[in-house]
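Saturday, quiet lab. Running sequence design on the structure tokens for the scaffold JK sent over.
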């Protein structure tokens, strides 16, 4: 549809601002909070949902992976704003996801990040 360039970056102002605003709003949802709680203590989740054997391990891996995707999809899609092939941009997104999952830092980081993403999205839309 011509929305991305060769580096995987959005060339559409509407797409860029929409992704940023959606990612920012998601930071405030209950689903995000529940998924972050899971991701901030993965060992407790493995202990609580332990399944023996190969199939049990696969089931636990899929369970944890689903929480990770639900937790970080908003920050993953902002990769399209700066470019999925841009090492610095994706490194910054990875840093944000990592800081958010740290128990001590993440509790103070998630909501201000949401405000910043919404503000950034509105700014992109305005210009």
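Result came back. Writing it out in full:
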């Amino acid at each position: 549809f011509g929305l991305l360039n060769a580096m995987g970056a959005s060339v559409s102002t509407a797409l860029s601002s929409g992704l940023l605003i959606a990612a920012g709003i998601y930071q405030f949802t209950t689903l995000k909070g529940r998924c972050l709680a899971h991701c901030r203590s993965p060992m407790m989740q493995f202990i609580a949902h332990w399944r023996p054997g190969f199939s049990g391990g696969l089931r636990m891996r899929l369970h944890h992976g689903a929480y990770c995707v639900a937790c970080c999809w908003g920050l993953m899609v902002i990769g399209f704003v700066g470019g999925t092939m841009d090492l610095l941009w994706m490194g910054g997104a990875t840093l944000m996801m990592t800081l958010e999952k740290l128990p001590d830092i993440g509790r103070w980081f998630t909501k201000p990040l949401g405000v910043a993403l919404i503000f950034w999205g509105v700014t992109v839309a305005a210009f």
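Notes for JK: The CA atoms of residues 51 and 58 lie 9 Å apart. The helical segments are 13-26, 30-40, 42-48, 53-77, 79-82, 87-101, 103-126. Ask whether to fix the surface positions before the next round.
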